[in-house]
Design brief:
This protein has 150 residues and is α/β, with parallel strands linked by helices. It has helices spanning 11-23, 34-44, 60-69, 89-94, 108-128, 132-136, and strands spanning 3-7, 27-31, 48-52, 78-82, 100-103. Strands 2-1-3-4-5 form a five-stranded parallel β-sheet, sandwiched between helices. Bound molecules: manganese (II) ion.
């Protein structure tokens, strides 16, 4: 079971992402602002975070900073989802610690490609203790460790 946290303040966008992700077999968790997102990450340790930049309470830049500063969370793959289309925003986002970037309106095939890229890399790093883990010097521990029987 791969759980993806959707952190997004707009209910319509959350619903759209939920439908796209569930249609691809992912389990979806939702947060409505940056603070909720951090609480849910701490509690559930999802496999990946789709993080809106413009959100109340804590915006996406504040959330990614706190994730990367927290040794327990730092390895979480995080994709920025933003309507910002200004020149230079992509560079700002990618230099802020995000692993990927999707612009709104969302292109479903771009979403799928990002998830395939990041979740494959993440799974390899868990098996081989390489990739993300070595890049950031530590290993992200998913909460999904109950499956001893496969
Ligand atoms: Mn927003």
């Amino acid at each position: 079971m791969i759980r993806i946290l959707v952190a997004e303040d707009n209910a319509v966008n959350r619903e759209l992402l939920r439908e796209l992700l569930e249609a691809r077999g992912y389990t979806v968790l939702e947060a409505r602002n940056g603070q909720e997102a951090l609480q849910m990450i701490e509690r559930s340790l999802p496999e990946l975070l789709l993080l809106d930049i413009g959100m109340p309470v804590l915006d996406g830049f504040a959330v990614i900073r706190r994730i990367r500063e927290n040794p327990r969370l730092a390895m979480l793959p995080v994709v920025a989802v933003t309507a910002y289309a200004m020149r230079g925003d992509r560079e700002k986002i990618l230099s802020s610690g995000f692993d990927g970037y999707l612009s709104k309106p969302l292109n479903p095939s771009s979403l799928t490609a990002e998830l395939d890229r990041l979740l494959t890399k993440s799974a390899q790093s868990a098996q081989q203790d390489q990739g993300f883990a070595d890049q950031r010097g530590r290993k992200y521990q998913s909460a999904d460790t109950s499956g001893s029987g496969g």
